[in-house]
Amino acid sequence: MSQALADLHPLMQEYLHELHILRQLSPHTLKAYRMDLSELQAIATDDAIELLKVTNAHVRRWAGRLHSKGKSSRTIARALSAWRGWYDWLTEKDARRDAQAGRVTANLVANPVDDVKAPKRLKSLPKALSVEQALALVNQALKEADVKKDLETVRDAAILDLLYSSGLRLSELLGIDVTQSKDRQHESAGWLDWDAAEVTVLGKGGKRRSVPIGEPAMRSLRLWRETRDLLEQADVSMALFISATGARLSPRTVQARLRTLAMRAGLPTHVHPHMMRHSFASHVLQSSQDLRAVQEMLGHASIASTQIYTSLDFQHLAQAYDKAHPRAKAGKA
Fold first, then answer.
1. Mind listing the pLDDT tens digit for each residue in 34-53?
2. Is 277 a catalytic residue?
3. 47 and 194, same structural domain?
4. Which structural domain range is residue 10 located in?
5. pLDDT greater than 50 at residue 98
6. 274 classed as catalytic
7. Starting from the edge strand earliest in sequence, which strands make up the sheet with 198-202, in order?
8. How many domains does the chain have?
9. Is residue 185 situated within a structural domain?
10. Are residues 292 and 158 in the same domain?
C-alpha cells in the first residue's frame, strides 16, 4: 500500500479498494479520487471537523474556500463528485451494516454533499478574428483567386467571402443550392436569391432565415458561379459549392482549405469556419450596436446566445482605450 493511501482514513481506503476491485476503475480515475478524498480529509483536519460528522454547511464553506483559492469550476465539481460518491457509499454501508463486532460504521443520517454545486463555470468567449485579421484573410483568398483563376481558389474565395459577409454556420453554407429546388427527388435546404443579394438557409431546429449578402461577397459568388458552370459533368450536384468532381463539398474539405489559407495569410491563430461566424457577429455589433438585428442574422432562438458578443465588443473597446487614452496605462501622468 502506498504511503498516500495509508495516510487516508480507513473508510476512504476501503472505498478506494472497492472502486478498484469491484468497479474496476482505471488507475488514472482512482488517482483522481484519491487526490480529492485526500483534500477533503486535509480540509476537515484543518477545521478540526471529524469526517463522519461533516455537515452540509461545512461542505458549502469548503467549496467556497476552494473557489477563493483559484480552483476552477471544473476542478471543484470533480472534487464534490468524489466527496459525494464516498459519502453515498458510507450511507449505503450504514444501511446494510450487520452486528459484526468491532466493525467501523459511519452512522450518517444523510449525505452532506447533497445539493452542493460548484460555482457556475464561466462561459468561455467565442474566438473571433480582429477586423484587420478578417480582412487580411479575405484579401488573401481574393488575391489567390485572381492569380490562379482555377476552380478551387475561386470557390474558396467565394466561401470565405460569404462566411464573413453573412455569418453562416458551416452546415448552412454547405446546404445552399445554386437555385431553389423542390421536387420528388430533392428539396433545397438553402438557396441564393441572386437578384436580391440574399441567402436563405435552414438553421438549427429546422428554422429558415434569410440573410443579406454584401456586394463584395456577391461579386465573389458571381465569379464562382461562372467558374462552376464550366464543369461539364452530367451529374454535377445542385449544390452551390462543389468539388472538381461535381459533388457537394464536405465539411472537412472546407475546414482544411480555410486552415491552410489562414496560414498563408500569416494569421497567428487556428482559423475554422465557425470563427468567421463569430467574427461576423462581433464586427457587425461593434459597428451597429444592434443586438436584435445580429440575433436575427445569426438565427439565435434566444437573445441570450447573442449577448455573449457584447463581451467581445467590450474587449475591443477596452483594447482601443488602452492604446489611445493618455491615462490608460499605469504610471502615466
1. 999 999 999 999 999 999 99
2. yes
3. no
4. 3-95
5. no
6. yes
7. 176-177, 190-193, 198-202, 208-212
8. 2
9. yes
10. yes
Which of 17, 148, 149, 204 is the catalytic position? 204
Alpha-carbon gap, residue 43 to 51, rounded angstroms:
10
- Say if residues 309 and 125 touch (Cβ distance below 8 Å): no
* Catalytic hit among 60, 272, 300, 316: 300
Cell numbers 484579401 label which residue? 139
Residue 28 in grid coordinates: 488514472
Are both 21 and 148 inside the same structural domain? no
CB 122 within 8 A of CB 131: no
Query: Which helix (H) or strand (E) is 201 found in, with range?
Result: strand 198-202
Q: Which CA distances in Å does 302 have to 192, 198, 254, 288, 295?
A: 26, 23, 28, 19, 8
105 lies in a domain?
no
15 is catalytic: no
31 catalytic per annotation = no
CB 16 within 8 A of CB 65: no
147 and 26 within one domain: no
Burial of 65: CB neighbours in 10 Å, binned 0-12, 13-18, 19+: middle
Catalytic residue chosen out of the listed positions 155, 277, 278, 283: 277
CATH code: domain of residue 60: 1.10.150
Whether 115 maps to a domain, the answer reads no
pTM given for the model: 0.61
Whose cell is 434566444? That residue is 302
Has residue 109 been placed in a domain?
no
Residue of 20, 169, 259, 316 marked active site? 169
Is 300 a catalytic site residue? yes
For the purposes of burial, counting CB atoms within 10 Å of the CB of 333, is it exposed (0-12), middle (13-18) or buried (19 or more)?
exposed
**Mean pLDDT for the stretch of residues 219-247:** 89
pLDDT tens digits, residue range 51-95? Answer: 999 999 999 999 888 887 888 888 999 999 999 999 999 888 766
